[in-house]
Structure formats: structure tokens, C-alpha cells
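ok trying this again, last paste got cut off
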Amino acid sequence: MLVRNILEAKGAVLYTVHPDALLSECVITMADEDVGSLVVMDGAKLVGIVTFREVIRVLARRQKELRQGPTPAVAELKVRDVMATDPICATLDTELHDLRALMIKHHQRYLPVMDNDVLAGVVSFHDVAKSVYEQQLFENKMLKAYIRDWPEESATP
């Protein structure tokens, strides 16, 4: 199975944000749309990704800073202040096995998918797990059908 197959099953909805957008708006979008990441685009160029991990990290950092005195409000932060730059990407032709290895090796739950220099989508660890689950269900169904139709053995050799 290829990444392109996962994206076809998932659908083509993409959530992107500009680096100068407010982080607070990103959090609202992520909550409203029930997504764990937003791809950061400067025009047509991929420049980063914001995931719930970056949001949690900035909140934790700000909480620690508050103990030492006043700091700018989190609502004033821009995406460029917290985004992960130069994210690891997959391609449409990345094999599922290689995708899982890439996500595990780099400890990434969300990977942008590029078609040359064009953003084709984002795959999440959930998307990968769902694809594997559905593939295994299909294979099990086919194996059971095959076994059920197994021809009778004749008594004579």
C-alpha cells in the first residue's frame, strides 16, 4: 500500500496556515475541525507544521516563565514562533512500511505528503493505523472465503 492510497481513502481536505497567523487562531481551527496538525505554508512553499505537541510545549514554557514574572500573552504568539520548521515529509509513492518506519524513527505523528514541490496532504499515525486495520480485515475476509471454498480432496491419490 502506498501513501497515495491512504490519502485517497482519507479524502483531500487540507488545513494550512500562514506563518504570521496567530497561534490562538490555529488552536481554534484544530479544535473546531478535530485535527492534530496544520501545515504552515508561505505562499505555495511548505515552511513548517504546527501540531498539538508544539502547542503543549509553548503552553508549558509560558507557564514556567509566568512563575518568574510577566510574559507576553500566548494569544499574541504567531505560528512562526512555535512551528516545527523543515518537517519530515513523505511522498505519494512512499510504501506503508517505510512510512511507519519514518514516523517512528522521527517520533512524528503527522507527516506532510509532497508531490514534488506541491503539498498533496497530511497523513497521521491514526490514518496509518486505520489503513492497516482495513487492509487486514480485507485480507482476513479473502482468506476465509478461500478456505471455505477449498476443494474436497479425493480418496484416491
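PB: full thing came through this time. The chain has a mean pLDDT of 89.
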